[in-house]
Design goal:
mainly alpha; about 500 residues
Amino acid sequence: MNQLKQIHAYTFRNGIDHTKQLIVSLLQIPNIPYARKLFDFIPEPTVFLYNKLIQAYASYGPHHQCFHLYTQMCFQGCSLNEHSFTFLFSACASLSSHQQGQMLHTHFIKSGFGCDVFALTSLVDMYAKLGLLALARIQFDEMIKKDVPTWNSMIAGYARCGELEGALELFRSMPARNVTSWTAMISGYAQNGQYGNALSMFLMMEEATEIRPNEVTLASVLPACANLGALEVGERIESYARENRYIKNMYVSNALLEMYARCGRIDKAWGVFEEIGGKKNLCSWNSMIMGLAVHGRGSEAIELFYKMLREGVAPDNVTFVGVLLACTHGGMVEEGQHFFESMERDFSIAPKLEHYGCMVDMLGRAGELREAHDLILGMPMKPDSVVWGTLLGACSFHGHVELAEKAAEALFELEPWNPGNYVILSNIYATAGQWDGVARLRKLMKGGRITKAAGYSFIEEGGYIHKFIVEDKSHSRSDEIYALLDEISAKMKLHGNVNDSGSEIISACLME
C-alpha cells in the first residue's frame, strides 16, 4: 500500500498518468475508498474503470454505490457493456431491490446484450436470490446456451425458497455438475431441515463422482451430521478437512465444533474450540456454551459465559438461550432468573419466545408450575405450541391436572392435529385415576380422526444412517437383524439379570 502511494506521488509530481493502473492495483488490495478518490479526479472515466469500481462495490459493499456509478455512467453518456450488467445484477441481489432489478433488466435487453451467457446467468441469479423464481425460470428456460453456473444459480434459488423437488429435478437434468452443484443441494436440504437427504446427497457425491468437497460443502453437511447424530461421518469429515487444510476456515471449524457438541462429544468439541484460539467469534462461544449446557455441564457453561464477557465478546440472544438452558438442566432456578432479568437490563437484549420457553421449562422442572403459568400469561408475545407443550410436560411429570388442562386447551387450539397432546393429557388423567377424562379424550380423538403417527429412530452404522420404526421389516437384512435380537433376548432371559449383564451379552452376540 505504501509503495502504491509513493508511485502515485511520483507520477503526480512528474506529470505521468498511471491513474488507471493505480486504481486497478488499489482495487486488488482492496482499498476501495482510495481508488474511488482517484477515480473521481478523472474527467471522463472509461467503461473499463467504471466496471472495475462497480465490481468492487458489488463484492465488498456498500452495494448502493454501484447504482450511484450506474447513474453517473448514464448521465455522462458512457455506454454500459455486458460486464457492467453482470456486476449490477449481482449488486441488485445483495440489496434485495426488486424494482431496481427489473429496471436494469429492461435496460439490459434494450442494450442488446441478451445473448451473453455471463450476464444472463447473473440475471437468473439475481431473480433467484430475490425470490422471484418464476422470472428466474423464464430467463433460464429462454437461454439457448447454459453453462454449469447457470444451472447452479437456478438450483440454489429453488433450494433457498424451500422448493427442493424443483431443485432436485433440475439437478438430475444437468448435463454436467461441479462441486457447487452438489453443495447447493446439500445446503438446500440442510437449511430446510431435511438432514437425512442432505447427508445422503453428500454420501452420494463421495461415492458416485470424482468431485471433491470444498469448505462450503463441509460447512453445509456438518449441521446435518449434528442434527442426525451422525458422529462417524462427522469424524471422517474432520479428517478430510484437516488433510485439505479446510479446518482453518471459520465456517468449517464452527460447524465441526457444533457437530461434536450436539453429538455429546464435549471433549472433542472443546478441543476444536481451543484450536480456534484467538479467531473465535460469537458463533464459536455460543456453540460451546450450548454444548456444555445441554449435556449437564451447566456450571462450566456459565463459567465460559463469564470468560467470554471478560474477553470483550458481547452476547446475543442465542448466547442467553445457552445460558438459560445451562440453568435449566442444572436446576439453578435463581441463577436462571438472574440471567433472564439481566438480558434487557444489562445487555439491551429483549427476551424472545425461546427465552420465555427456557424459563417455563426451568420453573416447570423445579415444580414451580403456577409461576411458570403466570409467566406464560404475562409474556409480551403470544405463546406458541412449544411453550404450552413445555408446561404440559411439566404438569405430566408433577401430576398437576388443573394446569395440564389449561395447557392442553391452548395446544388443542394451536395444533388440533397433534395427537401427542391428547395422549399426554390422557396419561395425566389416567395417573390421577380420572378415567372419565381418559374416555372423553379418546372420544375427541376418534371424532376428529386424530391418529398417532408411528415413532421412528435413527441409528448410524458404517457411516450410514438407518431409519426404523417398531417391528420394522423394510430393511433388506431384517431377517438377520431379528434373528440376532431373538438370540440376545434369549441369552438375557437365561442370565435373568438384564441390568448387570445385558451389555456383556449384547457385545458377546455381536462378536459372534
